[in-house]
Amino acid sequence: MAYGTTPARTPAERIELLPSLPFILMHVAAVGAAIAFPPSAGDLALLLGLYYFRMWAVVVGFHRYLSHRSFQTSRWFQLALVFLGTTAMQKGGLWWGANHRHHHRYSDQPEDVHSPVQRGFFWSHMGWIMSAKWHATRYGDIKDMAKFPELVFLNEHYFLPPVLLSLALLGGGFALGGVHGAIHAFVWGFVVSTVVLWHGTFTINSLSHVFGRRRFKTTDDSRNSAILSLVTLGEGWHNNHHYFPGSMAQGFYWWQIDLAAYTVRGLEKLGLVWNVRAPPERVLKLGRGIVTGEEPQTEAPRFADPIASA
């Protein structure tokens, strides 16, 4: 499937440069700072560590919990997951989750928020984020989680966790290496790491509906990619996910590496999460090409509830 040709945008879909200025300037700062302050091995380790830690928080907290409710947890651990996810600077968790539910409801249709099939690479990768149409949080699409005032507070004050992370990096870097250590910790642990994290996350929107293999027949063009799964801790098994969105694990089989799912199972053993949802045997058999008994469902409903199972 090739990328679609971006149609003419409505006034509500125009890209707004002024509100998008922080997003643009972070890219400029990342490139400039990386040149001005060449990394040490420790800087690269910090970059990767905070990339994957915050990727985990987005994948587990924003996606598999807030968006799909694929497991249950306590109110305090729910807050912790959302707080950590918000350090990724992908706006608020409720904004993120509401848009993701909208994506599932209209996947690869004209109404889809970021379909590469409909709108092409740039729009699906980052253009939609800069669009006026998607700036506000659609609380009506995530009413079940918007009932928690602490989550609404974090959603409305989404710059607070990144600021606290930045201050922690500056303080820790200064304690270990003075001004030089503070600058390098901030540049590589926050600025560069955040920009790399953005684009790692965005690949699921822009690439996983175009490149990869389709194990399940769905009404969209979602695909599975082992490479994207390594980049995103398991999100690359996207065709699996779009067929059965209620499953916590997106790697349905032992050979489909899903590092985020392994950690959630670990949290389950510790008693921090429970009622972890998994795909039923009929789905697993279907994915293996096994047909037994009644004819299995071969196509997920186009407008399925993004929380419910297909």
How does this structure look, described?
The protein has a domain at 15-213. The chain is 54% helix and 1% strand. It contains twelve helices and two strands; from the N terminus they run H-H-E-H-H-H-H-H-H-H-H-H-E-H. It has a two-stranded antiparallel sheet. The two termini are 23 Å apart. The relative contact order is 0.14. Mean pLDDT is 91; it is low at 293-304.
Low-confidence stretches: 293-304
Structural class designation: mainly alpha
Number of helices: 12
Shape: globular
The number of strands is 2
What is the overall pLDDT average?
91
Helicity, as a percent range: 40-55%
Query: What is the terminal separation in angstroms?
Result: 23 Å
Profile the largest sheet: 2 strands, antiparallel
Beta content comes to under 5%
Order of helices and strands: HHEHHHHHHHHHEH
* Order of the strands making up the biggest sheet: 1-2
Q: Please compute the radius of gyration using only Cα atoms.
A: 20 Å
List the helices and strands and how they pair.
Layout lengths: L20 H16 L4 H27 L4 E2 L1 H12 L6 H13 L10 H10 L17 H4 L2 H8 L3 H47 L19 H6 L6 H6 L15 H11 L3 E2 L6 H7 L23
Provide the descriptors you would attach to this structure in a database record.
two-stranded antiparallel sheet, 310 residues, globular, 54% helix, 12 helices, mainly alpha, single chain
